[in-house]
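dumping this here before i forget
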Amino acid sequence: MDTEPIKVTTPKTKNFSFVDSIRCISMIGIVLEHCGVVPPNHYSRQFENIVESSIIQSFKFSTIAFFLIGGFLINHKFDEYTPFQYLKNRFKKTIKPWLFWIFMLIMLSVLDRYIAHSRGSEMGLIGSNFFLYFVETFTRIVLISPYWFILNFLICITILLLFKKHLYNLWFGLVLALFSLFYSVNIYQGWIATTHTTAIFGFVFYLWLGVYFNEYYDKIMNIIKATSWFMILLLALATFWIAVGESTYLNSIGIKDAYNTLRFSNIIYSLVMFALLLKVGSLNWLQRNLRPRETTFGIYLIHVIIIDRGLPLIFQPLKLNFLELSIWQNTGILLIRFLVTYMLSFFLARAIGKTKVKWMVGN
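structure:
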């Protein structure tokens, strides 16, 4: 996902202000998804599982939309910089703050263990072998937590750079699409684990598609503008329910990763939603109040820590057993957790962005 502040015009003097609106909406969806409180397919009644699937599916386009926007933004940068220069710039603006917040999360986890130890709990691996604890925790955070997608995004960029001379070749895009579809089929077949870490090549296609979209921006936008609102809304609604149906079916046959982003139905839904957001265009009120160009990357980095270390401080004292609550109660809790997480992440990102250490949020 692209994290670098951008100008809304390019050397071709086109207005790309819609980019910030899509990034902002997608980030809202990503934070919302990460605020869930119960495991998938938890509820016993089919109706409750369908409601849960519908809630999750609503913003499930967000990750693919981010890769599409990321590819859209890097198209001209591939021409302006050598691969080494581009990756060097990425390291400064992306990897450096990424590593900082990973270390921050580890240190907060260590502090939590020491506080627990002072109250009588065992220190565990921290006390016996701190180095091993650090390595295992760092590896877990990088590979399992949402921080993985920052590294995944950079890997995808590197792949496109390696095949730069084939960037606008449709056959190259087809090969990348086949990689993505492999993961779609794998959800059913289970050839490899279906965690997001194993889908290392699954998102390159959407980054490439964003690059291709930028190159043929006028033609694609003409098609979208020529498509009626009724048709595009109908497609969005139809693909949404097809995606809900697929996840419900996957749950019914015992697939643990029933809400995988690379489900074929979710891919189609994401592309339709992206087209819908392009037709909507720039939402000035959203950009003016939520400042996505300044805060998006910071929100992504900070929200992981808020969810992992902050929300437990709020909800653990309440002694709520989410597994015993109804779908409606858990949905309400989900929305509260989202509002707390997003607002704290937003205000922290904005506050840090106004200081000398604004590099922490990629500015």
